[in-house]
Structure formats: C-alpha cells, structure tokens
Amino acid sequence: MVALQVHFLLIPSLMSIMGAAQYMMQDAALLSYIDQRFLSLEKRLEKCNQDVLEYVDEFREFSRMVLSRLAALNTGKAEVKREVENLLTRIEHAQRDIDYFGSVTDSNACVEVHEDLLKQQLLEEAEEKKRLKVMLNASCDHVLAGIRSLKVVKKTGGKHGSWMKDPGKKHTKIYLLSGSVNNMVLEFANIMSFMENNQTLKARRVPLPLPWEGTGHVIYQGFLFYHRHGSLNEIVKFNIQRRNIADQMLLPGAGRIPAYQLSPQTKIDLAVDEQGLWALHAEPETGGNIVITKINPVAMAVEHSWDTPCSSKDAEAAFMACHALHVVYNSPSGGSSRIQCVYDVLDALNAYTNPGLHFPKRQGSHSTVHYNPKEKQLFAWGDGSQIIYKLHTKQK
C-alpha cells in the first residue's frame, strides 16, 4: 500500500520534470533559430557592404578612365567643347557625392552687378518717377490729418451698398447702388431730394444691361465704372445719360481674392481722387497685400501699377486721396474703424502704418468708403446707413 502511494506521488513530479525539459528544448530551438537568422543577416550585410565597396571602386576606376580620355580630347569646335565641359562637371559632381556620401554641402551663389548697369537702373527709376509725376499732374500739396465729424444722411438699403456723387464741377446728382449684386441704379436730383422720406419715388431708375458685383463702383465724368458680376476681372464703363455700355476692360491679376478680408463681396474696388480713376485689389502673389492700378478712363487701359505693403487682412475698405492709398481696418465683429496704412505712389519710401487716424465713434463696419475730391469728403455706406465724413488736411 505504501509503495502504491509513493508511486502516485512520483508521477506528478516526473511529469513536471518532463514538462520543464520540453520547455528547455523549445527555448534551445528558438535560440538556435535566432542565431541562424542573425548569421544570415550578418552575411547579407557583409555582402551588401562588399558590393557597395566594389561599386565605389568600380565607379572611381570608371571616372579616372573617362577623365583621362576626356582630358586627351583636343578640339576647337565650340559644341564639342561645351559637351566636354558638361560631362566633366557632371562627373566631378558625382565623384564628390560618392566621396562625401551622406553629407550635404551648401553652395553660396555670388551675383556681381556691374557698376554701369546699376547706374543705368537708377537712372531709369528716376525717369520713371518723373514720368509718373507728369502723368499724375502732382499738384497735391496736402495730406489727410484726421476725420473730424460724421453725418448720417439716410438709412436705406441693406448691409452692402454704395452711394456717391460725380466729382465733376457741375454735378449735384446723387446715385444709390444697393446690394452687392444688382443691376438697378437710383439717380436723385440732389442731396435734398435723396434725404426726403419718399426719396425712392422721386428717383430716376437706370437699369444696367450687365449687373454689378461687390460695392466698389464709382461715377466719374458722367460714366459709371463697375466690376461686372460673373466675371473674374472685367470692368464696365457705362454711360449714365445714354444708358449704354461705352467700353470694357480686363484688370490683370485682379478678382481672385477679395480686396478686403472684412468685405469679401468686393473683389475690385474702384476709386476717384484729384488724379483720376484708380482700381484697388489684392493678389495671392503679394501675400494678400493691396495692389494699386492707375486707369486711363478714356482709353480704358492700365497706366501703371504699384504693389503696396498694406495688408488686406482685417481691412474693410480703402480710398485714394491725393494719389495716396488709405486703408480702413476694423475687427471681424465690427467696431471702431481706423486708417492704419497709408501709401503714396509718388513717395513709396515714406509709406507708413498705424498713422492713428480714427473714424468718429460709431460701432459697426463699412461696406464702402469713397473719397470725393471736389468736396473733400468721404461718402461711406455703413450697415445700411449713408454717411458723410468731413476730413481735416494739412500741408505736406
């Protein structure tokens, strides 16, 4: 009986020893497999290194052979000579890359400008500036010093719109263009007629054959200039009295992004000052900065363009006054408008930001701000209200 009990006690012990032996055999097999794999990988890496060394030696030998043969060539033909120089350069570059495998060598380019060429460029720039002064008839001797007061003339229309007068000497009519896409212009006999309560009944309606886009239109010398709706950068010249299209033109580079970030409905903003007709827009190539273009209103052609440092970011409007761009900025939620960038096309070196020109206290935002050079006032549209700002100027 005792022997039988001992037998039963030994069976689990033997099974445990046999299980441990089996695990040891498996571990040994695994270690052997890993060892063989490492040996295989080491042999492959060794072969790879050997192949690389053989390739490098082979290439160097080939390079020496080609260089020696090319050096022996002696021909006077220019075409062959260029090919030889090209091959020499390519081989030298490849040999350097092999010799310094894994390293990067920076090369500095040196551009030498000839002194006579530099003088010629400066002379041409001076001549161009002189030509621009003649073209612009630079008679402006004052700059904007502040915005003194505001007058809300009327509140009619929606959030976006534009209203204006023709800055000609004998023009008293008021023009109202409501909305950012429309084709109906309202013409009033004068400012008093516009201010009356039933002013829309007394207005002369002028339909346009092609609708406008944005709010950047102007009336100048009896013509309405506006950005045609549905076009990228087409500007239409419309005869107000004859009610027909007088001319059209394309403004290169314009129309791809809004002229002002806070007024995305306007891609091209037209402006009038003492020097004539201008176009304002932004381009991706300028980083969103505003571009000024002088337009000949008779020929409907570009006379000159300037890239400005004035950003369209957080801008809501802009206007030209005395051949200087004034950009109006605000906050995205609307607040107190302020002029933070001024750029004079005849004095670009003195362009400055944050001149501290704030509009009179009025919370909101502007859809348009246009300068009237005859009356020295700003005609603005703010949240459905038609506003006039009086300006304070000083001598340059």
Automatic annotation (TrEMBL):
Residues 70-97 form a coiled coil. GO terms for cellular component: extracellular space. It comes from the Eukaryota. Residues 139-395 form the Olfactomedin-like domain. Residues 1-21 form the signal peptide. Its main location: secreted. SMART domains: OLF (SM00284). Transmembrane segments: none annotated. Disulfide bonds join 140-322. One of its GO terms (biological process) is signal transduction. It is found in: Secreted. InterPro entries: Olfac-like_dom, Olfactomedin-like_domain. Keywords: Coiled coil, Disulfide bond, Secreted, Signal. This is OLFL1 protein. It comes from Hippolais icterina (icterine warbler). The gene is Olfml1.
